[in-house]
Amino acid sequence: MSLRAKLTTGTAAAASLLLLAGTAAAKQPGAPGIGDPYYPNAGNGGYDVSHYDIRLNYQPATDNLSGTTTILARSTQDLNRFNLDFVLKASSVRVNNKVASFTQADGELVVDPKGTLREGSDLTIVVTYSDVPSSRSLGGFTAWKRIPDGALAIDEPDIAPWWFPSNNHPTDKATFDVSVAVPDGVEVLSNGIFNGTTKQINGWTRWWWRSLKPQTTYLAFIAIGQFEIRRSTAPNGQPVINAYSERLGEDAGAAKASVERTSEVVEFLEEKFGPYPFEAQGGVVTPGIGFALENQTRSTYDPAFFRRGTNTYVVAHENAHQWFGDSVSVHGWKDIWLNEGFASYAEFLWSEHVGEGTAQENAEFIYDLYAADHPFWTVLPGDPGPENQFDGAVYDRGALAVHALRVAVGDEDFFSILKGWTAHKRYGNASVEEFIAFAEKVSGEQLDELFKTWLFTPSKPAAAPGRDGEFSARAAVAEPKSRQKIKETHELLAAGH
């Protein structure tokens, strides 16, 4: 921020220093990273994005992606330079309708707007580009997934840099318009509301999608290929769009029997978490992902989740993320338990709902599954480190932590905490510490020791949460009917990352 000095007699030297300091401050570039300790280069400083308009053309035969992304933002400091996270080759950049110079290296598009952008200024940033995304890597990794009939821009924690320039961190949410032109006969899926197609004169069709609520960059997706698209209306009146790759083979029936129940699952989760936070529902099943991901309004699933038959547990898991992860997003990637622990616990709740095992039975089964010296207990769900961010313990031990909270405070306070939390932090970001403070406030109980035990201690707790002698003996006789399906789901989810 520039300093302003009023020159007065006898203070010229001091005033000159102030003016020099002001000049230096005015020329500060935006930071190349937001400051996330797990991913230091993720995101950027100096501006806040409000909207992305992504207009693309994609040719499946060559994997060529071209187009323009227009970013609406506001500067949060005086800027003479700023970064965008992007790995594709840009051909031009404009800032507020003026041509800007730029350089690209190591996943950073560094923009020089040729002049200082004052704090609080509205910014219109237009980036034009053309490249082959599957040929681009960052840190030896390529998130873009080319498939036989198209491509998938689906991954976590990074996918945006392979298809649009962005401030790529969960703390900078925005609304989105996404339109993609493809050859006639190819389908395009994305987030939010489907606004139809436009026939183009060159034998191509443009598909239009709009996300009305704040969305993080890694939850924006496109799936391009040959899909069967099913449209319906949810009980709450929202549009439901489900899509199934034509390459599902023998898994197609089980996939449809699971994902077509999305609105039923959402209706159940609303009872536990509060009103559904977004404008549309649905899911996409396609080979080539290797995992499932909670893309906002329209989760995506690899068909492996349905290889042994229907699996509504993964549907419950990914749709629980619409509250825990999508609406209430992590403040930093170390807070991943707020996403995965609660989505995994939603599977416990769904298991109770469908009569395949209580949450208590599932919690005891997980606790007994791993011996005290198993590495499972050395991972800290509350701060697992980037190398263990998607470890199975973040899911399963994370769910045990949620159940421990339920046992400690009782059902009335527990569900008041969940509904209050999703309302309090709706469309925002949060840390594990903030959740603990909120749970203590609602319950009126001191919970530091509980969360220290289940989230931050690298050893097996003394007992499963809620275990007593009678229940323990009963649980030891038979595995909950849901456990094998939940276990398979978590192994696939963790293996995908």
UniProtKB/TrEMBL annotation:
Domain of life, source organism: Bacteria
Q: Entry's Pfam families? A: Peptidase_M1 (PF01433), Peptidase_M1_N (PF17900)
For this chain, the family text in UniProt reads: Belongs to the peptidase M1 family.
Is Metal-binding a UniProt keyword of this protein?
Answer: yes
List the catalytic activities from the record.
Answer: Release of an N-terminal amino acid, Xaa-|-Yaa- from a peptide, amide or arylamide. Xaa is preferably Ala, but may be most amino acids including Pro (slow action). When a terminal hydrophobic residue is followed by a prolyl residue, the two may be released as an intact Xaa-Pro dipeptide
Assigned EC number = 3.4.11.2
Q: GO annotations under biological process? A: proteolysis
Co-factor requirement: Zn(2+)
Q: Where is the signal peptide?
A: 1-26
Annotated Peptidase M1 membrane alanine aminopeptidase domain ranges read 259-454
Q: What is this protein called?
A: Aminopeptidase N
Region (Disordered), start-end ranges: 462-484
The record's GO molecular-function terms, alphabetically, read:
alanyl aminopeptidase activity; metallopeptidase activity; zinc ion binding
The segment(s) forming the Aminopeptidase N-like N-terminal domain are 50-219
